Amino acid sequence: MERPVTAVQRSRRTAPDDLARPFLRVGVIGLGVGEHHAAAYLQHPRCRLVAVCDRSPEKRDAARSRFPEAAVAADAKELLTDPAIDLVSIASFDDDHYTMERMALEQGKHLFVEKPLCQSPDELRALHQAWKHHEGRVKLTSNLVLRAAPLYRWLKDQILSGRLGELYAFDAEYLYGRVHKITEGWRKDVDNYSAMQGGGVHMMDLLFWLTGQRPTTVTTLGNRIATRETAFRYNDYMAAMLKCPSGLIARITANFGCVHRHQHVLRIFGTKGTFIYDDAGARLHTSRDPAVPSTPVTLAALPASKGDLIPEFVDAVLKETDLTAETQSHFDVMSALIASDQSVASGGTREIEYL
Fold it and tell me: Residue ranges of the alpha helices (H) in the chain?
């Protein structure tokens, strides 16, 4: 690392009072979204941000000022193999995730990873095996931030309580609204970049997390009309139809080329009620009578920060909470995303192969 003081020396020098109680030494790789990660770790009383990493010299220079107590590295391997680091946040480019995760798991480090976990079925299988090898001792989670949104925590409770009745349709749209990020930014250079993995993942995760169901098949179509005259090489629009064992049908779209502000739309239909979130806000319909208005729901549909899930993860690591079911759910979501990409490539329906 560029600083001569090692991460463990730095943490001991800056926090000697904490040697008497457990705390986590954390490293963050990637200082785009990773800055939100770093801020969350700094706010947790039992974390020490001991190292950060980015390829960009400019971001490394900025990090020295923003995180003066952290070592700064240009090579992620230095954090991933440093025995002084207990937990690594990975917020690098999508095609780096798998290699970094494998290296961290080989070192027995806990992992908080930006989506997607990986890109291919082979990577997913290998990653799953590496995680299973630790038998729950090493914690791994993905930053699917809509799980932290007050609106969706409330909605999950409503679904579990039966207020919507039996669910039969799930309709979600991810409206990216920032086309320059795929035509000019790093995403255009990532081989096999997937709009469904890069953005639709949030909607796919809501399907699994809110409904508690695992779809069995997926049929997906895609096109590249909005960006066909640009350097972006892959589908900027993807639409997936998924079927669940209960009969519930889901439609999920990843719309990266849209002329629209960055937003998402969600409609969930049940036999007793309908939930809608769109430009008009969130509301709950509990009657077919046109004279009965819907009930507005004023809770936020986004978390306050992209680091909002980090405190819960840190607490789970410190308390040695069993996160097996949560981590497996992230692998399940990835299985559905990969099957969706395979469906586009093959032009037909794919069975989703869960690990």
Answer: 7-14, 34-43, 57-66, 76-80, 97-106, 121-132, 150-161, 180-183, 195, 201-211, 310-319, 324-346
